Each structure stands twice: as C-alpha cells, then as structure tokens.
C-alpha cells in the first residue's frame, strides 16, 4: 500500500527549478563549446580561473556546479568549495573577509586539485570589490581557483578579464529548450499539446529558468499545457494576435490595427510587452508570414520603438505611433511594387 510520507511530500513539492537542476553535464543542453571545455577540465583536473558570461537562465551556474560535482564529489566539496551567490555577498567586505579567509585556509586535497571559489553576478560587484578579488586571485593562485559568472562582461575589471579563461554562453535555441522541457514533461507525466509546448518556448525566449518556471506555473494553475493556459499564466499577449496585427499593417487596414491596439491596451498589456513580442515574431517570421520586402524596414521601426520605450516612455501613444509608421511603410512599399 502507498503511504504518504513526508519525504514524498517534500519531493513532490520541490520547485522544478530545484528538482531538475542539472547534476551532471549530461543534464545540460546547449552551449556545447563551453560545456566541452568544462568537461575536459573535469577529466584532467587542471582548473584554470574561469569567467562564464552570458544571458540569465542559460546554464552558467549549473555547469559550474556540475564541474564541481565531477571534480570534488559531495564530501570533498564541503571543505574545498566556497560558493557565494547571494546578492549581499558582493561587497568588498565579504570579498576581503570570506574569500580571503577561505583562500588562506589549509585543506588537504588529492594531488592536482585546488580549492574552488564560485562567485555569481560578478558584474554587480562594485569596483573596489572587483579589485580586491583580483588581488586575492593573484596572491592565492597556487592553491585556489575561481569560477566567476556574469551577465555582462563589459562590467568586469580588465585586470580580471586578462587573467581568466572566458566561456561564453548564449540564449538557448528552441530545440534545446524543447529537449529539456520534454524530459521534465515525461518525468512528471504532464498532459500537453505541441502548441502549448511551443508557447512556453516562445515566452521563455532562450531562458531555461523562465521556461521551467512557466511550465510549472501553467501545470499547477491548469493541470494541462496548452496555448491558452500558457498565455494566461505568463500574462503576455497571444503572439498569433500580434502577428495578425502586423499583417493588418501590411494590408494597410489602419482602423483595424488601431482597434487591435486599443483592445490589447484595454486588457492591460504594456506597450513594451507588445513591441517585444513583435520583435521576436519578426526575427522568427517566415516569408509566408512577412514578405521579405517589408522585413528590414519593419524590423528597424520596431527596434526604434523598443529603444524609445526602454528609455522611459511606455505609453499607448508610442504603440499607436509605431503601428501608424508600419502602415505607412506598407503603403509606400506597395506603391513601389505597383509602379
Ligand atoms: N543549459 C541548461 N540545461 C539544462 N537546464 C538549464 C540550463 N540552463 C538553465 N537551466 C535550468 O535553469 C535553472 C537556472 O540555471 P542557471 O542558474 O544555471 O542559470 P544562469 O545562466 O547561471 O543564470 P543567471 O545569469 O541568472 O545566474 C537551473 O536550475 C536549471 O534547472
Ligand atoms: Mg547563475
């Protein structure tokens, strides 16, 4: 007979981000060139100092944790690894106290293995903290290795950059996200439609953290992954509707387009939400959706509007201005075509 023990409850209730956090390199999808470097380090044990840089939710911290698992195992990791990932652990004080103290500690390790410091969000560390870190990296280079992670390497001290092996991470492809989501869907025995899965992938936009979160939220909210449920949970406008809006611009149906903008605004979506979806749709649009003649000018116009809104002016007027320009562009392109 099945008994409902507290262990069962704990496992079922675990957020999927935690439950499906990669434990080995085999669990990680995408970014093969960087993962292959880490795999080879895990085999020969010769760790350089690393900087993993790239967008959120692409596996930077996960792959460093996999490397640490392979190299150290659970027991050794307790004394050989210092992991700082809370955002209040970025101060110069923490670097001078915690990191330096760890670097100075004597730990007996197998031959060829050094102590290992994992430091996330290095790009949010102030300059003096980065300078202090660089000094410690240099002073203790014989006994301690560092794996740093960041989203924006432009904010990393030049002197740190010149002392590390850089591993770049990029947004994950649709296929890579699908592969991991299908693994979770099978493990959890979830009901889904292919369109629902596609909707999760679309809303995640290359970020696996977002994809897994959206999968779990949709499943806990509705028990079924289909398109409608995903867009309700993710609170983004349905891309099919936005694509139809773009096509209406091309057909110069000005009044219909303005009505569509009003409708979306009435539903509470911000201009930026809508414009970002337009941008993503344009980037993945086929010739069947958006003819090539319109592609370049439309992309430019949408990108300009996104820039203006991101600089602080998010209003319905911006969106109306954008669709009016798109209609105008369509009109002049169709004039040229008929000339
Ligand atoms: N490439 C990947 N393969 C499999 N799972 C992944 C991958 N990337 C991210 N994940 C999942 O998303 C979660 C977050 O990933 P991770 O912490 O590695 O992202 P990150 O790149 O370090 O992001 P950030 O820049 O925000 O720190 C992980 O727990 C894991 O479940
Ligand atoms: Mg991280």
UniProtKB/TrEMBL annotation:
AAA+ ATPase domain mapped to chain residues: 46-174
Gene Ontology MF terms: ATP binding; ATP hydrolysis activity; DNA binding; DNA clamp loader activity
Domain of life of the source: Eukaryota
GO biological process, one term: DNA strand elongation involved in DNA replication
Pfam families given in the database record: AAA (PF00004), Rep_fac_C (PF08542)
Keyword field: ATP-binding, DNA replication, Hydrolase, Nucleotide-binding
A GO CC term attached to the entry: nucleus
UniProt record similarity statement: Belongs to the activator 1 small subunits family.
Name used for this protein in its record: P-loop containing nucleoside triphosphate hydrolase protein
Organism: Glomus cerebriforme
């Amino acid at each position: 007979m099945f008994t409902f023990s507290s262990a069962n409850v704990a496992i079922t209730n675990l957020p999927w981000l935690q439950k499906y956090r990669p434990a080995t390199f085999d669990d990680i999808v995408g970014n093969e060139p960087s993962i292959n470097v880490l795999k080879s380090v895990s085999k020969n044990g010769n760790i350089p100092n690393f900087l993993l840089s790239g967008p959120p939710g692409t596996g930077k911290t996960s792959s460093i944790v996999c490397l640490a698992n392979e190299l150290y195992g659970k027991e050794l990791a307790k004394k050989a690894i210092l992991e700082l990932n809370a955002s209040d652990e970025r101060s110069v004080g923490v670097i001078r106290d915690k990191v330096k103290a760890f670097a100075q500690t004597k730990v007996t390790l197998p031959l060829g293995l050094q102590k290992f410091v994992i430091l996330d969000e290095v790009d949010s560390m102030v300059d003096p903290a980065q300078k202090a870190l660089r000094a410690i990296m240099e002073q203790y280079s014989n006994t301690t290795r560092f794996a740093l992670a960041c989203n924006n390497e432009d904010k990393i001290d030049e002197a740190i950059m010149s002392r590390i092996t850089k591993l770049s991470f990029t947004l994950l492809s649709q296929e890579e996200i699908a592969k991991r989501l299908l693994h979770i869907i099978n493990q959890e025995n979830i009901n889904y439609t292919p369109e629902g899965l596609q909707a999760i992938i679309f809303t995640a936009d290359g970020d696996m953290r977002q994809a897994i979160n959206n999968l779990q939220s949709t499943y806990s909210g509705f028990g079924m992954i289909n398109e409608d449920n995903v867009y309700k949970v993710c609170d983004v406008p349905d891309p099919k509707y936005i694509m139809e809006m773009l096509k209406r611009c091309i057909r110069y149906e000005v009044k219909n387009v303005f009505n569509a903008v009003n409708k979306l605004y009435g539903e509470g979506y911000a201009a930026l939400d809508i414009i970002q979806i337009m941008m993503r749709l344009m980037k993945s649009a086929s010739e069947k959706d958006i003819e090539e003649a319109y592609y370049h000018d439309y992309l430019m116009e949408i990108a300009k509007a996104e820039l203006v809104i991101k600089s602080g002016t998010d209003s319905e007027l911006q969106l109306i201005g954008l669709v009016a320009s798109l209609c105008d562009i369509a009109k002049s392109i169709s004039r040229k075509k008929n000339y």
